[in-house]
């Protein structure tokens, strides 16, 4: 199969695509989309978060087509996103309205409403369960029915007050007014520097999970602020409301509920020194993270990076917003790295000629 | 290869019309300020970042039903990435494609300007990996923007000066910076130095698109484009002195060097040009 500059590039591509399809299907067991959505929901959440597109059904197609590769699935969804018209902008979503599925605070032993472990692998032992191979639809259904029957008694979904609001009430966190300035959308206007916070948060939330996590880890290890504490981490369904058609102004009650998205939200408390009347006192800075889906590690890391970037402190590369924001995107990073597979013989020839010239110049008396 | 297999799932030329307009507006601004990098809301495309998404967005924003498209990658129409880009444009527009430079109304290229001079009826779109000519001097965008605003280009000259200091010559390579219309220093994309003079008073507008870096910039028709150099160390293109194409015999063109057991052989890099010469057609 020829690679470059030989007639037949089109035939080579066709043959390669056929081979790709074969590799996906050669086992003879096509993966059902319900199997992808049902069994790979964490992957789907990760992919939707990095793609900035919340649509579990479309994401399931992307995951199947990508054979489970997150970078490829994100790529597919982003390209799809480029063709989708933006019809509405939601009203500012209020995360205090989150229907909580899981919630914890590392800062307090007990919080109003209590800690809710929810579904988590945190306290599972990571021992491979080889019996998973024996699961059948029938056996699974029996178990699921039994569990759901027990949970019936649990009652309706719950909302909880936010931990940081309690701290604000105590004066430990400075009160901040609501700022409903329309965010700058980096997918419509691009990133500009110095970036505003909405651009930073948007870029981080759609960042590649591994990259955001690694950079967040670096901030913990000394390139950022030491000893942050997770004030609150919550996972749940966030309702979204849009204005009715036509010209406003509208009452709060006029809005249309258009659905809900699962999100992970993290607020991290970072002790900082502030100057009050010439006296140095300690107070808390807040790092904020919010990602589509159940994406806890990434969201915590996002909150750490948000705080470091917001502090404008001289903390090295992580406080350099161009360094962080321009390198966290999956599609951009994987695209540019993979472009090294493209032929470069024109530029290499030019360089080769330059190298030969420098040798000639050396030999000259 | 035209008309066949138009994909009904997508709008003409993939984008919604609003997106196309937005990109064209940035392009008009780029033409109005020659060599200035206009930021734009670069979309994610069905091909990867770094594989020509900037050029592709320009092409898709400009293409009309009567356009004839030529796409080359490293000088070759048949290169797999060129074929892939052509296929995407054709699948979403149904327009005709050609390998002949003279027949094309829209030419998208990576790393080369065709050997046959372009006309005012054509548009050349170049794919750009790194649009900022000062990036090697200054990694920060906020700073390079200011340097451009102040026309502070000593850094670019300093790079060339250091090259001469070290190697006794402008060793260069591709993407040699140029001054456009006497104002902005511009990265001409990684075209060989051999192609830089083709930008000078080009009859065809040259549009440069950097998808990942989200910039569009342009050389309008009939605009002076001067490669950076010094009076005592003038700009120099790659030399293929004494070499000629083994197929069509062309000299004074950019050649590919193919290593072989009996020493290197040379052939035209611009495959469309070479084939039309071999066919005895007007090159």
Account of the 3D structure:
The complex is a heterodimer of chains A (365) and B (283). Chain A has helices at residues 9-25, 33-39, 41-51, 56-65, 70-81, 137-151, 163-170, 186-189, 197-205, 209-223, 296-311, 321-325, 330-338, 345-363; strands at residues 99-104, 229-242, 256-276, 279-292. Mean pLDDT of chain A is 89; it is low at 1-6. Chain A contains 14 helices and 4 strands. The longest helix of chain A is centred in the last third of the chain and has 19 residues, at 345-363. Chain A has 2 domains: 9-81, no CATH class; 95-119 and 136-328, no CATH class. Chain A has 365 residues and is an alpha+beta fold. Helices cover 43% and strands 15% of the residues of chain A. Chain B is an alpha/beta fold and 283 residues long. Among the domains of chain B are: 17-129 and 196-223, Rossmann fold; 239-283, no CATH class. In chain B, the strands form 3 sheets. In chain B, strands 1-9-8-5-4-2-3 form a 7-stranded mixed β-sheet. A 3-stranded antiparallel β-sheet of chain B has the order 7-6-10. In chain B, helix 1 (17-32) packs across helix 2 (53-62). The relative contact order of chain B is 0.16. Chains A and B meet through helix 1, helix 5, helix 8, helix 13 and helix 14 of A and helix 3, helix 4 and strand 11 of B.
